[in-house]
Structure formats: structure tokens, C-alpha cells
Amino acid sequence: MKHIYKTLVTLTLVVLSLSSMAAIDDSMNINDIHQQMKNKLLTSEQLVKLYLDRIEKYDHNGVQLNAVVQLNKQAISQAKALDQYFVEHGFKGKLHGIPVLLKDNIDTLDGMANTAGSTALAKNFPKDEAFLVKQLTEAGAIILGKTNLSEWANFRSPHASSGWSALYGQSKNPYNRHITPCGSSSGSAIAAAANFATVTIGTETDGSITCPASVNGVVGIKPTLGTVSRDGIIPISHSQDTAGPLAKNVTDAVILLSAIVKADHNDSAMVDSAINYVSHLKADGVKGKRIGIARNLMGYHQGLDNVFNEAVQTLKTQGAIIVDNTNVAHFQELGRHEFEVLLYEFKAGLNHYLANTSEGIPKSLALLIEYNKKHADVEMPFFAQELFEMAQSKGELTDKNYIEALVHSKKLTQELGIDALLTKYQLDLIIAPTTSPGWKIDWAKGDKHLGSASSPAAVAGYPHITVPMGYVDGLPVGISMFSGKLQEGKLIETAYGYEQATLHRVSPKL
Fold first, then answer.
1. Percent of the chain with pLDDT over 70
2. 66 Cβ partners below 8 Å, 6+ apart?
3. How many whole angstroms separate alpha carbon 473 and alpha carbon 169?
4. pLDDT, average across residues 180-190
5. Least confident of 58-62, 97-101, 389-393, 426-430
6. CA 295 – CA 309 distance, rounded (Å)
7. Mean pLDDT, the chain, as a whole number?
8. How crowded is residue 7: how many other Cβ atoms within 10 Å of its Cβ?
């Protein structure tokens, strides 16, 4: 009888385990998952195995979205250890047992290379892990794996195709595999949308979180520059780069953000944030907000504008005070200054990163250019390396041209840009469509960007959130919300309130 009883108990636990795993769908957030762990209906080990199964079924076989390109072989053992920790001590932190996927330009120490999608860095095994990775593990997260990206974070050629890298190939939009996933955090956005992990991490210089978030129908947050450390991240621009969350809902994105924000005194742009991000998840967060519309950041796609105008009406219904035509000044002038800054900073930053890599890896941008020429059949079958060569031609960061371009970039987006609008119209935030619906993947001609709202906040170093706004011809589109330095609280309140009132996101059918 004892043997029969033990068998029945075992079978019951197996059934509970399987039913729990089946119940973990993408409508659940981190709080829901933790509640299931508290109720002993779910373990972190089960959760990790669930995501590994989904990745195997939908990413590596079948649909072949090609978003997850490396897996952490220690993930299951780490999950088991966290499950034991929970039994003995409770939750380790706000991300206890939560699987996270990282963009493949972030250093880890778990046997995964940090490649930027380039064959030149295929064996780049870091000597240390990024500051933000330490924050994730301290919060109890499990680094499940790495995601594909537009090679070199989309800074090799103006004719590049988003989501393509020489090392891993083309990643695909889960809503339509012929449509771009945008970039450069392509794989992270796809993985969030397709539920390959609870949350993911991307990085942005200008639009690399917000564009893929919008095009793949998820939430993306680009935080205030310097609140998240850039240590251990392959760089483009020290005056614009930041990591940030991608998630299926605002709640998870905000919880993830709160885990990775910490002052890193070795980061030259460090900004100490005392914001309690999670406290701003308020269902009535839109009420009373003065919201400006940047009409000069739209008008390039009629279907997108129609959906955006519906979103404005929703915000009004929720109690927002809409101030129209609060256009971002000097927008057309900004581009040339930003581009000059990026070329200079890319050369300096990349040379510094490469100098500290292991033997056999090109130690400078100049050597990387030569590597690509020697391996052109693999690295440059569709587009060249014009941006690399332009950056290599630049001088030092002490050059007058660089300094003037940097000063103009910041002044146009801060003092004469976003700050001026917020003050003049007494605004809490500014909104616009994030970017156009996804376009067809075209390796021969590259991306077909029609427009974007990313640059003002990106260049200023100010926070920017995109939230699913609906669909145009079956493709997801997002609404952008941006404001001044360290104004994430207002953005989170508005984004969460809008999300909860609309719940536009529909999971892709894999």
C-alpha cells in the first residue's frame, strides 16, 4: 500500500507540474509567476524547461524565428539552486527564478561568447561579466541565453538589414516571417514577443530598443542615460548607449528595469537614480497628465497616423490633457551632428573594448576592417562596411569637430528640444508613433525606414517608453512616450494606464 501511495503522490505531482507548465502563458507577468511559486504550483526549474522547449519548438525548429542564438548550459542547474534557496530562505530578489535573455553584445561568464553577431568575435569569451548581469543575478534572475542582433548593433553599413548577422543569419518577425524585426535588438524583441523568456534585455543608441519593441508588439524602455551601467557592453556611443528592458507588458518591463538600475561609479555617464519604478504602476496613471503631440515626428504613414489618433482619443478619455502640435524643434538639423558624434565615439569605444579581448580577436577597428575584407564572402555578402571605414577616418575625441558636434547634439535635444517643450507647454511628456509598421526584409537594398520618434530622447539621453498601440495590416505598431531626464515615473504611469485601458497586444500565432 505504501508503494501504491507513493506512486499516486508522484503521479499527482507530475500532473500538477505539467498543468502548471501548460498554464504559463504570455498573459502572466512576473508577479503571477512568483505567486505560482509561492503556491507550490511552479518551480524555476520547470519554468526554464518550459522556455527551453518553446525555443526548441518555435525558434530552432518549425517556425525558425532564429532569435535565440546561444543557450546557457548552466541554466537548469542554476534554477535548481534557486528553487532550493526559495525553500530555505524565500525569494532571493525581485527576479527570483525568472529566465532572462540578453542581447549578444553583453559580457557574461557562463561559457557564452559575446559576439555582436560577427564571426570575428565568435570566440570572444569575456574575462568578466557586465555590471548589469551582476545586478540581474543578485536579483535572482537566470541568464537563459543570448539573442541575435543586427550585426555590430546596426553600425557597419547604411544598407544593412535589421536582424541579420554574419554569425547567426536573419532573425524573423513572429507576426510575419517576411517582415523585418527591426533592430538592432531584434532577437531580444522577437524572444519577448514569442515568449521564449519572461523578459529580455536590449541595448539602444538610437531606436535599437524602441523600434524592435514596436515592430514586434512588445513594451520597450530606454532609460535615462547612465542609470543602467554600460560596463561590459560592446559600444557604439558613450554619450547615447544604454541597455533596457523588452517585455510583453509594462509591469515586467518596469520590474526588470528596477533590477538593473544601479549607480556604477566606473561609468563615465553615471546617473544615480532614486526612483521607485514599480510604485509608478498606477492604473489611473494617465489622469491629469499634460501630454504634448510631436506632429513633426509622424505623417509618413496614413494607417499608422489613424491608429495613433485613436490612441490620443483613448488618452483623453482617461483624463489626459492633450496639447497638440508641440513639435520637436531642430529635428532635421540634428541628424548630421549626431552622426558625427557616433562615428568618433564608435572608433574610440570599440578600440577600447577590443584591446581587452582574448588572443586571436582583432584588437582595433582598423584590424576589424581588414578581417572583414579577408572574410568578405561571409561577412559582407549583402552589404559592406562603410560606417566602419568612415569611423576609422576620424581622429581623437579631442578633435574640434567632435566636440562641437557633441555640444550641438545635446543642446538641440535638451535645452532647445525636449526641455524647452516641457517648460513652454507645462508638459509631463510628449508622444508620437514609435515607427512605421514593419517592412519587407530585403538583403539587397537594406532597411526601408519611413520615420521614427527615437532620436530626440536618444540623443538627449532622456527616457523613452514604447507600448503596443494596435495593428496596421496585421502588423504591430507602438506609441512612444518620452520626457526629461529621470522622468521615468511619469512615463511609467502613462504607459501602464494606457496599456491597462487598451490591452492591444495579441500574441503572435506561432
1. 95
2. 59, 148, 168, 169, 170, 171, 172, 187
3. 27
4. 98
5. 58-62
6. 11
7. 95
8. 10
State yes or no: cis peptide before 184, omega within 30 of 0: yes
Q: List Cβ neighbours of 260 (8 Å cut-off, separation of 6 or more).
A: 132, 135, 136, 201, 228, 243, 245
Residue 427 has pLDDT above 90, yes or no: yes
343-374 as b/e, with b when 16 or more CB fall inside 10 Å? bbbbbbbbbebbeebeeebbeebeebbebbee
Catalytic: which of 44, 157, 162, 208?
208
CA separation for the pair 94, 11 (Å, rounded): 32
Q: Where are the beta strands (DSSP E) in 198-252?
A: 199-204, 219-222, 242-247
Crossing angle for the helix pair 331-355 and 365-374, nearest 10 degrees? 90
The residue length of the chain stands at 510
Q: Does residue 129 surpass a pLDDT of 70?
A: yes
Alpha-carbon span 97 to 198, nearest angstrom: 10
User: CA angle at residue 30 from 197 to 245, to 5 degrees?
Assistant: 60
Q: Which of 118, 150, 165, 184 is catalytic?
A: 184
Question: Distance (Å, rounded) from C-alpha 260 to C-alpha 103?
Answer: 15
What does the pLDDT average to over 387-396?
Answer: 98
**How far apart, in whole angstroms, are the C-alpha atoms of residue 98 and residue 46?**
11
Which residues are within 8 A (CB) of 413 and not within 5 positions of it... i.e. 6 or more apart? 334, 455, 456, 457, 459, 460, 462
Return the sign of the alpha-carbon dihedral for residues 13, 19, 22, 27: negative
List the beta bridge partners of residue 202.
Answer: 244
- Which pLDDT tens digit goes with each residue over 300-319? 999 999 999 999 999 999 99
pTM: 0.95
DSSP states along 446-490: ------BS-HHHHHHT--EEEEEEEEETTEEEEEEEE-STT-HHH
- Classify each residue of 268-302 as buried b or exposed e, where b means 16 or more C-beta atoms within 10 Å of its C-beta: ebbbebebebeebbeeebbeebbbbbbebbbeebe
CB 164 within 8 A of CB 206: no
The sign of the dihedral angle between the CA atoms of 84, 126, 154, 262 is: positive
Active site residue 409: no
Per-residue CA distances from 356 to 128, 236, 397 (Å)? 11, 16, 20
Kindly tell me if the per-residue pLDDT of 12 is higher than 60. Answer: no
Residue 466, amino acid:
T
pLDDT category at 25 given cuts 50, 70, 90 is confident
Q: Give the integer Cα–Cα distance in Å for 141 and 127.
A: 21
pLDDT in tens, 463-509: 999 999 999 999 999 999 999 999 999 999 999 999 999 999 999 99
Q: Is 393 a catalytic residue?
A: no
208 catalytic? Reply is yes
- Cβ atoms within 10 Å, residue 187: 36
Mean per-residue pLDDT, 46-52: 98
The pLDDT of residue 13: 39
Q: Pairing mode, if any, of strands 169-170 and 164-165?
A: antiparallel
C-alpha cell at 28: 502572466
Catalytic-role residue among 20, 103, 157, 165: 103
